[in-house]
Amino acid sequence: MRYAHTVDTVRGAEGELMARLPDGALMRRAATGLARVCARVLPRVYGSRVVLLVGGGDNGGDALYAGSQLASRGAAVRALLVGSRVHEGGLSALRSAGGRAVEVPRTTEIPAGSEAATEMAAADLIVDGLVGIGGTGGLRGPHASLAALAGATETPTVAVDLPSGIEADTGAVEGTAVRADVTVTFGTHKPGLLVSPGAEHAGVVELVDIGLAGELPTARLESPQAGDVDVSLPRPGPESTKYRRGVLGMAVGSDRYRGAAVLAAGGALRGGVGMLRYAGHDAVATEVLRHWPEVVVSVLDPEDPLAGLPERVDAWVVGPGRGVDGDAETELEAILGSPLPVLLDADAVTLLGTRPRLVRDREAPTLLTPHAAEMARLLPDTSPREIEARRLEYATRTAEEYGCVVLLKGSTTVIAEPGRPALADPNGTSLLATAGTGDVLSGLVGSLLSGGLAPREAAMCGAYLHGLAARLAHDGGPISASDLIGALPSAIRALRTE
Ligand SMILES: NC(=O)C1=CN([C@@H]2O[C@H](COP(=O)(O)OP(=O)(O)OC[C@H]3O[C@@H](n4cnc5c(N)ncnc54)[C@H](OP(=O)(O)O)[C@@H]3O)[C@@H](O)[C@H]2O)[C@@H](O)CC1
Ligand SMILES: Nc1ncnc2c1ncn2[C@@H]1O[C@H](COP(=O)(O)OP(=O)(O)O)[C@@H](O)[C@H]1O
Ligand SMILES: [K+]
Predict the structure, then answer these.
(1) Residue nearest atom 46 of ligand 1, based on CA coordinates
(2) Is the Cβ atom of 140 under 6 angstroms away from ligand 1?
(3) Strand order in the sheet with 414-416
(4) Domain spans in the chain, listed from the N-terminal domain onward
(5) Which ligand ends up closest to the CA of 186?
(6) CATH class of 2-223
(7) Which of 437, 439, 441, 485 to mutate to test ligand 2, by most ligand atoms within 8 A of the CB atom?
(8) Which residue's CA is the closest to the ligand 1 atom numbered 3?
(9) Which residues are CB-contacts of 238 (< 8 A; sequence separation ≥ 6)?
(10) Which ligand neighbours the alpha carbon of 211 most closely?
């Protein structure tokens, strides 16, 4: 697991630790770790040209001290100072090691042909020490201008603690932000490094241990790794039967949207369900059987939507392609009336927006898997764009308002449960941005729910395997939702070698 803590928590832990250490010890540890990574990014340190972007706080101080270490190993280091002040200790260390510093004019626009821009383009490495966890709001003035100019070069960029311009606690990006190839973060990850859009600016994230771990409380956010998924995933043992492995009920698809049913069924079957009981009208049920003869089908009577719903199941998946008419609503209400774990996706989420009490009053485990537009239907006065800009915040808010687990789909899949650290899936890939992949996810996560995983863990494992399957199915060209189903067994196998 990767753990991420908020700025307030980091500051608190830092205070405790600093009280026991000599002055400047933490910054020395941070700068040494930073310099080590910079030296690895450079083809060789001696003779290379390094440009430091230096803001007025300790983030700039880290850059200056790391720069001084590179300078003493023979790099030509140039610091561009943009703050209204500068970390004096860092600056004198850089100068003593032979590095040079120039004040950048504090004008808002630094022109493309300026000396600073030319230096950045000609450098072997840019080190972004403009702002770290002390940043507030979008980048201002010359900071924004330097970040944009750095982004216009091909020069490899290492961000100090976090790319300047991303909000540490949320991953939100207002205006210009640095795009790093590598981010060297100190003590613990920051949520903004793991959640898009911030995560897309961070590149490869390297954690430098500065001794903070012992002071840190529970994380705000966790990001699972292959081993976490591997130990959670239910697997058959000698005493397994199809019933003990878990029976999943599925109220998905309709005569109009048959593909949703076929795809969700595929996700469940390749996710390792013991038995899949599918319920639907004749035409869609026939289609499911044609693709997957192993499914046990209940054909529903259009005149009496509840009569044929299977009873002996361990969990339910409801919603994708099911419709939002009166029958769909009656069915959703009946399924939510059971004491079983239920996953609501797509149309079921839309219906919930008009009947929030169906979940708010429910005691049994409930998991919602909306994309941003569906989530916006659950939160009046919120737009999909706002949700995409602050995924962690909105997933958490929805989980709290509905009293259940929420998996928010999209560029970074975020999972939230009241009272528990949120989860950010590390495997997201835009290969998944194609119709039907969400249907596969609902079946896959449903199979894990029926296998006995709690909703948060089922969502975590499902999202991880979903992204991994997309990567494994990808051989250079596009993939479709059906390819994803085929790659799920390889993804499960790959967990042990990842
Ligand atoms: N915590 C730890 O454990 C450790 C922390 N360490 C390091 O300390 C860093 C935190 O340092 P910090 O507190 O000095 O703040 P920092 O990020 O440099 O930013 C403040 C400066 O930025 C400016 N500024 C702010 N917003 C801005 C904007 N939007 N646009 C433009 N400017 C903006 C602000 O200017 P002002 O608002 O004052 O004019 C001020 O000058 C942390 O990230 C890590 O690198 C390690 O050394 C050791 C362990
Ligand atoms: N840009 C993206 N990056 C990563 N994953 C994405 C992206 N866009 C979509 N996805 C993933 O693809 C799936 C799409 O689900 P959904 O929108 O419900 O599609 P559908 O309803 O067509 O099945 C989700 O798992 C989502 O997280
Ligand atoms: K930075």
Answers:
(1) 27
(2) yes
(3) 2-4, 221-223, 422-424, 414-416, 405-408, 366-368, 342-344, 315-318, 247-251, 275-280, 296-299
(4) 2-223, 226-494
(5) 1
(6) alpha beta
(7) 437
(8) 14
(9) none
(10) 1
Tell me how far the alpha carbon of residue 392 lies from the centroid of ligand 3, in angstroms. 21
- Counts of helices then strands in the chain (DSSP H, E): 20, 18
**Cβ of 65 below 6 Å from ligand 1:** no
Q: What is the DSSP letter of 45?
A: S
* pLDDT tens sequence for the chain (498 residues): 999 999 999 999 999 999 999 999 999 999 999 999 999 999 999 999 999 999 999 999 999 999 999 999 999 999 999 999 999 999 999 999 999 999 998 877 888 888 889 999 999 999 999 999 999 999 998 999 999 999 999 999 999 999 999 999 999 999 999 999 999 999 999 999 999 999 999 999 999 999 999 999 999 999 999 999 999 999 999 999 999 999 999 999 999 999 999 999 999 999 999 999 999 999 999 999 999 999 999 999 999 989 989 999 999 999 999 999 999 999 999 999 999 999 999 999 999 999 999 999 999 999 999 999 999 999 999 999 999 999 999 999 999 999 999 999 999 999 999 999 999 999 999 999 999 999 999 999 999 999 999 999 999 999 999 999 999 999 999 999 999 999 999 999 999 877
Q: How far is Cα 40 from Cα 24, in angstroms, rounded to an integer?
A: 25
> Binding site residues for AMP, as ranges?
409-413, 438
Residue nearest to atom 6 of ligand 2 (CA): 410
Give the residue numbers of the binding site for K(+). Answer: 59, 128, 164
Q: Which of 464, 443, 445 is nearest to 263 (CA)?
A: 443
Query: Do residues 363 and 382 make contact, with C-beta atoms less than 8 angstroms apart?
Result: no
If one residue of 133, 169, 183, 188 were mutated to test the ligand 1 pocket, choosing by the most ligand atoms within 8 A of its CB, it would be 133
In degrees to the nearest 10, what's the CA dihedral of 375, 379, 381, 383?
-10
For tokens 């990014």, name the residue: 41
Taking the CA of residue 260 as reference, the ligand 2 atom at the shortest distance is: 23
Cα(314)–Cα(250) distance, rounded to whole angstroms?
11
In terms of Cβ atoms closer than 10 Å to its own Cβ (0-12, 13-18, 19+), residue 367 is buried
Asked if the interface predicted TM-score (ipTM) of this complex is over 0.90, the answer is yes
Q: Is the CB of 186 under 6 A from ligand 1?
A: yes
Give how far Cα 348 sits from Cα of 125, 280, 315, 342, 445, Å: 50, 15, 15, 11, 16
**CATH code of the domain occupying 226-494:** 3.40.1190.20
Annotated binding site for (6S)-NADPHX: 58-62, 132-138, 161, 260, 321, 371, 439
